[in-house]
């Protein structure tokens, strides 16, 4: 069983940039209509397409199953979606922990979100200085919600 245990945070400054180990560009879209059921996501990461099935279980734990799909299939699916987002994803190493920073583009610019995957919900976590506010569980910050209701339209 594939479990994703993840916490998410807003960012207050650019101090995270000194910890970057890698960067990729992501475009992703959703075949799902609402958050209450399984979320079906397709993601393109510069070189390949993957489809993921996600379902919230409790707190900040989800089922997550992800599979590679042929490029032609991925291109066809993506070209027929209206709910998509684009972002740059930065991978960081901080005190032996792997963090991800997503810098959203287009209609979700200038939103930046930090994520960390944990091995268990009770895991102790030391927050880096660039972390502002925890947004774990706030569904309007989910990638699915940002695809339907972009950050630029919130105000």
Write out the CATH superfamily name. Hypothetical Protein Pfu-838710-001
- Based on CA atoms alone, the radius of gyration comes out at 15 Å
Number of strands: 9
Named at the architecture level, the CATH assignment is Beta Barrel
Helix count equals 2
Please state the structural category: mainly beta
First and last CA, distance: 40 Å
> What percentage of amino acids are in beta strands?
over 45%
**Sequence of secondary-structure elements:** EEEEEHEEEEH
Biggest sheet features: 8 strands, antiparallel, barrel
Strand order of the largest sheet: 1-5-4-3-2-6-7-8
Helix proportion of residues, in percent? under 10%
Shape: globular
Task: Provide a descriptive summary of the structure in words.
The protein is mainly beta. It has one domain: Hypothetical Protein Pfu-838710-001. It is 10% helix and 48% strand. It contains 2 helices and 9 strands. It has an 8-stranded antiparallel barrel with strand order 1-5-4-3-2-6-7-8. It is globular. The model has no long low-confidence stretch (mean pLDDT 94).
List key phrases describing it.
155 residues, mainly beta, Hypothetical Protein Pfu-838710-001, eight-stranded antiparallel beta barrel, globular
Give a summary of the structure in a few sentences.
10% of the residues lie in helices and 48% in strands. It is globular.
Topology, please?
Blueprint: E1 3-11, E2 20-30, E3 39-44, E4 49-58, E5 61-69, H1 71-79, E6 84-94, E7 97-104, E8 112-117, E9 131-134, H2 143-148
């Amino acid at each position: 069983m594939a479990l994703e245990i993840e916490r998410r945070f807003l960012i207050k400054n650019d101090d995270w940039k000194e910890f970057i180990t890698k960067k990729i560009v992501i475009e992703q879209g959703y075949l799902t209509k609402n958050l209450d059921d399984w979320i079906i996501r397709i993601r393109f990461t510069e070189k390949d397409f993957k489809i993921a099935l996600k379902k919230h279980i409790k707190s900040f734990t989800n089922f997550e199953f992800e599979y590679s799909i042929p490029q032609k299939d991925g291109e066809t699916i993506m070209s027929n979606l209206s709910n998509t987002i684009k972002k740059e994803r930065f991978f960081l190493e901080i005190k032996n922990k792997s963090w991800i920073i997503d810098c959203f583009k287009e209609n979700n610019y200038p939103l930046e979100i930090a994520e960390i995957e944990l091995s268990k919900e009770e895991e102790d976590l030391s927050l880096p200085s660039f972390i502002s506010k925890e947004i774990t569980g706030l569904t309007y910050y989910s990638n699915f919600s940002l695809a339907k209701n972009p950050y630029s339209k919130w105000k």
